[in-house]
Structure formats: structure tokens, C-alpha cells
Amino acid sequence: MTFTRRTLLAMATALAPIAALTPVTALAQDSIKIGEINHYKRLAAFAEPYKLGIELAVEEINADGGVLGKPLEFIFRDDQGDPAEAIKIAEELMTRDGAVMLTGTILSNVGLALSSFAAEKGYLYLAAEPLADSLVWSSGNPQTFRLRASTWVQAAMLAEEAAKTDAIRYATIAPNYAYGQDAVEAFKENLLRLKPDVEFVAEQWPALFKIDAGAEVQALERAKPDAIYNVTFGTDLAKFVRDGGDRGLFDGRNVYGLLTGEPEYLDPLGDEAPEGWFVTGYPWYALEDGTPGKTFVDAYMDTTGETPKIGSLVGYMTVLSIAAAIEKAGATDTASLIAAFEGLEVEDTPIGLLSYRELDNQSTMGAYVGTLAVEDGKGVMVDWSYKDPAPYMPTDDEIRAMRPAE
Amino acid sequence: MAFFFAQFLTGLANAAALFLVASGLSLIFGVTRIVNFAHGSFYMLGAFVGVTLMEVLPGAVGFWGAIILTGLAVGAIGAFVEMVVLRPIYRAPELFQLVATFGVILVIQDLALMIWGAEDRLGPRAPGLRGVWRIFGEPVPKYDIILIAITPFILFALWYLITRTRVGVLVRAATQDREMVGALGVNQAWLFTGVFALGSALAGWGGALQLPKGGADLLMDFNIIGAVFVVVVIGGMGSLPGAFIAAVLISVLSVFGVTYLPQSTLVLMFVVMAIVLIVRPYGLLGREEVAGEHGQAGAPETPIRPYGRVGKMLVAGLLALLATLPLFAEQFVLTLTVDMIVFALFAASLHFILGTGGLVSFGHAAFFGGGAYAAALLVFHTDTRMELAFLFAPFAAGLLALGIGWFCIRLTGVYFAMLTLAFSQLVWSLAFQWRDVTRGDDGLVNIWPADWLNSPSAYYYFTLALGVGGILFLRHVIHAPFGYALRAGRDSPRQAEATGIDVKRIQYAAFALAGAMAGLAGGIFVFSKGSVFPTELEIGASFDALIVVFLGGVKTLAGGVVGAGFMTLVEDWLTRLEYWRLLLGLLIIAVVIIAPEGIVGSLRSLCTQIRGSESEVSK
Bridge partners of A145? Predict the structure, then answer.
């Protein structure tokens, strides 16, 4: 039944753009425009909730009178996941469409390209979702700010938990690209610092979204590790969990999963979610009534009719950050906005007070950690907690050494 | 030993879906000579249709019934695509159809997103087949065993169909000589449709059968297509037993690769393909391609000649417009034009070896991206002056082309194309994995031009001079004796040899020149964007160039440039819309059907027709 309805809807939406070939950008005259670049088609599963989060926040802010007395407007553009295309669009947004700043991207490489472009041209870029540490550290620049807790921080949270156990022999599995490699490196460094006698007995590197799960599971089993650190996500994760579960790879072993608890990856697993894994994620379902986090969840479900993903939260907080920065700056020129973002404090976000560090332009958004369980045929995080990122960061001096001279 | 055996079983199980999909592609190519890029899309459709049917049909009967129905449904979709999209263009130049199949990919991607939504679907388990059996103490999933058991039956059924039935006789006859089959009174159109439907159905079955091991998602079309092409090529295009052997070989080697060389997952199969093609140029069980395939279909090509007065004035007018553009256009128009010129030069360099040389390269991005990386690496690691680093881009790309060409040039046709693809994947994986030097996926950033060029209009003139200069230079080469020799080698290698032309050497030189010019485009590119990432070396980047060359018109001189200009503008406009992939796909299909000689070729034919009727009137 749902299939038929969906099909009909799909047909209707398929015909709509042919009937009206109008660009998605609205033409409000005196709005404050933000250029938002993302991989809406290539990574639709992640970009769509993110966009819904943005739209919710924009709606709320504009209902409250907008910023500086003007409505806030986002111009959404699709870059096909191609860094060069993203740069072209960024230029158009800034020079032709009158955007006051840039935001967006999920893929780290596109984020890095935009960051470099922003620095060269003197634009402001808020990287919402990209996780790469280099974005604010080794490739950091004064024009780029970043919202989400980076790979290093999230891996360090898992390493801290791992160090509490007796496990000595660790195996890792991570997608074979920059993010996966950074995530393994960060986990290793943090764990070895906390527990120097740990040894890493196997490192598996499946190609992104092309995992040969059976072979990877056999290779991990062969190494006889005490514990496993997983960085795979998306379809790779589903295949890995299924094959590993069938073959008993996870029996009697601690498993640590980076991002595994995020609804984007956990929801598709259904009742096959791997119980007992310690993960970072987003337990929106367990937030308590009356907390700002829960208020956001309710508002999101009311307007969209969908359950929130971590992308929804990030999109929502991106808009709150931008609106707060514009209000603080009192103007929309780039210099004032950058000055406003330095040390910006955003009150009443779903995670409470959010601020942007002057040290490295990184926000203080943390991450939720917890243990996976299956309830009502769905994977959920239990015994979870929200962790502030500060204790997991390198020292200020280390960060200053990493950041190119400003 | 038990572990070893269990690994072998894993490999065999993986081979099942791969073989199904690959055998479909191989069948389609063998009979219709279509390189069907959209084959991965049928695989994806199979997975989604399978999931949907399995949700509706209950129990074990429902599960296996759903799989069978999925194949039939996807086969029907394949037949529809063949009749609507491909049938009108069989007489177009060879490989032109691949552009149409690319349009089909885009359409199916957006339709799948609309119908099934963005979220990944986990495949249902096969009823009663959850869990493992122990074989020599090693756990082996039950469903793996079932897959291993099914595959020989499928191979046998296909073998029986092809060798023992009348349909099979016709298919084999068409594989060997389709004109002759047509001459003997067989309705070719329906034979082609039938084979295409069967091939699509096999892909659909592959997608449905893998569900209990994985699921359905919107990226699986591109994710499998590389492996499928590798299997088909290693086995020999058109050979079913070859596809089977190759599927097993690749799958089993991959499993051992995962265990003993975990970092090898990106390149292993391309290395195997390169080795097989270097040792056996037509795959394990393939046959040598019939010589002179290129240029057979469609009307014979008219000799090229320099533009007449009108043409020259048009070009001069266009150049004058471009030269004065910064005086009145806004900044973004300049950026867009820079992008267009870069892409036009890249496409022109591919068009040079493809159109004039008759060498279809599937890996041309290796030289574009290679040039970009060469310049970027110098700047990034040694702070080389931009001017010097820029010069290094075409030089390094030319050297790379000399290296790759040395292996590839001895092959012809599709095998040449696939070997270039394999090498470009090797270059890509080098950039992707050698992080100490290339920073991998994080790319090389902050590669900006020297100060005197670092304003939009200065860089625009720089691009205009070098880009247009490069395009005109390539055009000049085509009209020079070297170009004539190259075309002679393309149209008739034997006669060309007989007149004393060393065909392979000419082709080798042309390949290197094309590589260097692509590298030049890459050099301009990297300084205009300020960064370079492995995406510029991906298969997709090579195909972008290939598609615009075909879209513009292979058998014309301006095809690459016009196609690139057209595509840049259309993409820039369409990507602003929600369902741009659907629209772009439909547009590509429409252009392909309306203008089977490409945009320029069809315009030219139209002009000739109009002029022809005018001159008749005046007589």
C-alpha cells in the first residue's frame, strides 16, 4: 500500500519540475542570504535530514522576526560531491547571488576545498558536518569555522572507554580513505597514551562502500583480537554487522564503533543492530522532556513527520550559529562576521550553550556516547551520556603548533 | 587449511552475484556491441524491486518467488530501455550508444530516489537460511553455501540456452556477424531487444540474490560497475565461460587480498586486469576483435578540410567576444568561462586521439588529473614558483602518457579502452592511498596562482591564451601530415602500414601528445581552483570527457569543444533544480536520439541538406 502511494507521489514530483522550471532560490529582495553547498543527490540519505534541520531553524528564526530585522534565507546548491564544482558554486553564491557567507558539505574533501577557497578570497565558511581534523588544525585558516566534533575527539572518547577494559589485542576495520585512516590513527594514539601495553594485531581497510564483508570478518577472526574498533558506516557497516554476527566475530569481544550510533547508520540495521557495541551517536529518542534537546526533537518531528538524524541536529545548529553571529556582528560584511564568530556564544541550542573557540575556530559541540541495544525491533543507545569535547582535545600549545601561522 | 578452504568458499559466494551481473553485460556486448554503462543501474533496480517484493510476499516461497519476479521485472525494464533509447541509434558511430546508457543511469538514479527514498535498505534474510554451517570447524554462512550451489546451475542454464537452443544459435551468429544474420532474414531488432532484456534480467537477479548478504542503496550502481567491467574484460568480452572464470578468479583473489594485503582493496582487481590484458590482449577466453570495426556503422566520413570563410569569421567573432568579455561581464561569468575552456581543452585532447586516432580511451582523466597533481605537488612540497610548476603539468602528463601508452597501444578497441581504464585507476589509487605525498582524499590545497595572475581577469586571459592556444594547436596537428598519418592508421591500418607509416608509433606519439594537452588543461585547472583531489582522477572524470566528445560529434573537428561548452552550460543551469539528474539524463537521451552524429555532426548534415536542396532549386 505504501508502495503505491509513494509511487504516485514520486510520479507527481517527477512531473513537477518539468512543469515549472524555476530555480529553487527564492527571490526575496532584502533578505540576508547564506550560501549552502551540499551533496544533495550523491549523499541524499545524509543531506536531506540536514536540509530539513536547516529549514526548521530558518522558519523559527524568521517567525521571530529574522535577524537584524530581515528574514534569513538559505540558497541551497548541489555540488555533485565534486570539490571543483563546489568552488565554482561558492564563487557564484558570493559574487552574484549576494550571499554573505558560505556553509555546508558533508564530505571532508569538499570542505577542505571550500576552506582553502574561502581563505584565498577572504570569504567566511562555516563547515557544518565535515569531520576531518585538518580542517581546523593542520589546514586551518582564519576564515574557516567548524561546528561538529571532529574525528579525533570522537575517537578519543571511544579510546577512553576502551582503556578501562582488560583487552590488550585490538583489531581495527576502517574504510580505505582519509577519514578512515585518521579515525584509526586517532584511536591508536589515544589508546596507546592511556594504556601503553595495548597492541594492534590487525588493520583491515575495505574500500568505501565496497566491503567484502565475509573476507574482512574472516581476516579479523584470524587475528584473534580481544576487542575490535569499527569505523565502517553505511552499507559497509550493515554488511559487516550481518556477516560478523553470523560468523560469531563479536561474541565475547568488546567492539567500539565510531558514529555507529548515529540514526543515519543505526536505523537501517533494524533489529540486527549489534548489541553491546560502545559507540558515538545521537540518542534523540531518550532525551528527557523539558530539555532543549527534546524540544528540538519534538519540533522537528512535528514539522517534518520524520525522526531526526544527527544531520538534522547539525543543520539546525548551523543556522542558530549563523543567526547568532549576524546578530552579534550587527552587520553582514565578512570582516564583521568573522570577528563575530571568534569566540561566539550561542545560547539555548539543543545541546545547551554552544561556543566557537578563538584558539582554532572549532565549536564546543560534543558527542553522545553509549552502548547499543535492541528495543522494539530497533537499535538504540542505552547508558548514554553527552560528552564535552574539551578534555579530549590536544593541548592548546599542540593545536597552535599545528595551525599554520595566522 | 580449514581457514584457507573457508576463505575459498567466501570467494565463491561473492562470485555468484558478480557472475550474474557480468554475464548479462557480456551477453549484451557480444550481440549488440553496446558498452552498457547502465548495467549497474539494472543491478540496483534488481535490489530495490527485490526488497519491495520480499516485503509483500511472505515466507520461503515468497522470498524465492520475489527473486524470480524481480528478474522478469528488470528484464522488462531493460527491454523498454532498449526499444526507446537504443534502437534508434544502432547506426550511430561505434560506442556512441554508451552516451545514451549514461543518460539512462542518471534517469534511473533520480527515479529510484523518488520511489524508494534516500535511506539504505537492509536486505531481508533468506527464510530458514540465517546463521552458519560449520565446515572443518570454520563457520560458513548458510546463504553462502546456497549461492555457491546455485551458480553452476545458472551457468549451465545459460550455456544450454546459448549452445543448445535455436535462440542461442541466433545469438551466437549475431555475436559473430550481425549483418549476415540480418541478411538471412532474422529480425535483428527483436533479437537485440531479447538479448538486452535477458542481460538486464541477469543483472536484476544478481541484485536480488545479494540481498540477504547486503541490501539496496542508491550508490550500488556505480559501486559494482567497475568490478563488472573488469570481470567481463578479463574473461573476454562476449564470453560467458570467460565471465564465470574471471568472476571466480577476481572474487577469490580479493578474499585473499583482504587477509594478506589489507591495503590492496582499492586496486587489486585493476592490477589483475592490467596483467591479464598485457599477457592476453583479448582476455582469457575472448576473441580478437574484427579489424576495421571503427567507422563501419553510419555514413562514411567526409574528408576534413579547413573552415571556409564563414566558419573562420564565426570563430574569429567568438574569439573577439571572449577577448573582450572581462570588459562587461560579471566575475562569475569569467569563472564559468574558465571552467568551460579548461574542460574544452581536456575534451579536445581526448577527441584528438578518439576522433582522429580512433583510440577510445576510458582513462583520459589520468593525464588531466596527473598534470594537475604534478603542478600541485611541486607547489605543495617545494614551494616552486607557480610559473615553473605550471610548465611541469603538461610535461609530467606527457611522460605519464608515454609510460601508460607503451603498454596500451598494442591493444585495440574495447580492450585498449579497458587497459587505459585500469591504468587510470592505478594512478587514482596512488593519489588516493599515498598519503605522505599526496595527502590522499584530503587533497592538495592552497595551490593559487602567482600574484600577477591572481585576479579574475588576469587569470581569465591566461586561460584564454593557453586554452584556446592548445585547442588551435591540436587542430593544426590534425591538418598537418602527422594528423593525416594518424587518420590513415585509424581508417585502414594495413594500407597505412603498406605506405610506410608506422601506425603504432604514430598512435603512440598521438597518445602522448593528447596526454600532454590534457595535462595542460589540468595545470590551468588546479591554479584556478586552488586545490586538487583524487576525484579529478576518477573514472567518472574520464567518462565526463568521453560523453561530451560523443555528444559534440566524434567525426567532427569541433565536437569536443562544442560538447564541452554545451555540457558545462547545461550542467550549470540544471544543477540548480531539484531533480537535475533526471532532467540531464533525459536531455542527454534526447540529444542522442535527435542528433545521432553528435551536435556538430548533425548540424553539419542539416546544413549540407539545406544547401543541397538550395543548389537544386537554383539549377
Answer: A126
Q: What is d(CA B30, CA B22) in angstroms, rounded to the nearest whole number?
A: 12
Least CB–CB distance from B441: residue in A24, A96, A177: A177
Let me know: does A224 contact A201? Beta carbons within 8 Å: yes
The pLDDT-based confidence of A9 (bands split at 50, 70, 90) is very low
| Rounded CA separation B593/A354 (Å) | 56
Q: Which of A7, A44, A207 sits opposite B118 (nearest CB)?
A: A44
Give, in order, the Cα–Cα distances in Å from A93 to each of A33, A35, A87, A291. 9, 6, 10, 37
Taking CB atoms and an 8 Å limit, are B258 and A206 in contact across chains?
yes
**Cβ–Cβ gap B576/A219 under 8 Å:** no
How many CB pairs below 8 Å do chains A and B form together? 222
Neighbours of A238 (CB within 10 A): 27
Which of these, A41, A54, A129, A38, lies nearest to A90 by C-alpha position? A38
- Set of cell numbers at residue A300: 522537528
The SS3 assignment for B325 reads helix
Domains annotated for chain B, with CATH where assigned, are 10-219 (no CATH), 333-609 (1.10.3470)
- Is the CB of A87 less than 8 angstroms away from the CB of B442? no
Ranges of H-type helices in B117-219: 142-164, 166-176, 178-183, 188-209
Provide the edge-to-edge strand list for the sheet that holds A125-127.
A72-78, A32-38, A99-104, A125-127, A144-146
Please give the ipTM for the structure prediction: 0.87
Handedness of CA B65, B71, B77, B79 (dihedral sign): negative
B553 three-state secondary structure? coil
Q: Is A30 helix (H, G, I), strand (E, B) or coil?
A: coil
> Closest Cα to residue B347, out of B528, B514, B524?
B514
- Measuring CA to CA, which residue among B413, B424, B302 is closest to residue B358? B413
Nearest-neighbour CA in chain A from B500: distance (Å): 46
- Cα A158 to Cα A190: distance, rounded to the nearest angstrom: 9
How, if at all, do strands A254-261 and A278-281 pair?
A: parallel
User: Comparing A93-107, A299-313, B7-21, B120-134, which segment has the lowest mean pLDDT?
Assistant: B120-134
Residue type, B158: L
How far B512 CA lies from chain A's nearest CA (Å)? 26
Weakest mean pLDDT among A11-15, A203-207, B62-66, B99-103 = A11-15
Chain A (257-296) residues lying within 8 Å, Cβ to Cβ, of chain B? 267-270, 272
Q: Which are the contacts of B316, defined by CB distance < 8 A and separation ≥ 6?
A: none
Separation CA A379–CA A270 (nearest Å): 6
Nearest CA distance, B502 vs chain A (angstrom): 40
For residue A321, give the 3-state DSSP assignment: helix
Q: What is the pLDDT of residues A319-368, one digit of tens each?
A: 999 999 999 999 999 999 999 999 999 998 999 999 999 999 999 999 99
In whole angstroms, what is the distance from residue A350 CA to residue A108 CA?
Answer: 24
Q: Do B141 and A204 touch (CB under 8 A)?
A: no
Q: How far is A26 from chain B (nearest CA, A)?
A: 12
CA-nearest residue of chain B to A309?
B119
Q: Rounded to a whole number, what is the distance in Å from the CA of B399 to chain A's nearest CA? A: 25
pLDDT for res B616? 53
Strands A367-375 and A378-387: antiparallel
Section B509-535 average pLDDT:
94
Residue A119 has pLDDT above 50, yes or no: yes
Which residue type, as a one-letter code, is found at position A187?
A: F
Domains detected in chain A: 30-149+291-365 (3.40.50.2300), 152-286+367-392 (3.40.50.2300)
In the Cβ-directed half-sphere of B448, how many Cα atoms lie within 13 Å? 14
Range 336-365 of A in CB contact (< 8 A) with B: none
Q: Give the closest of A45, A116, A219 to B120, CB-based.
A: A45
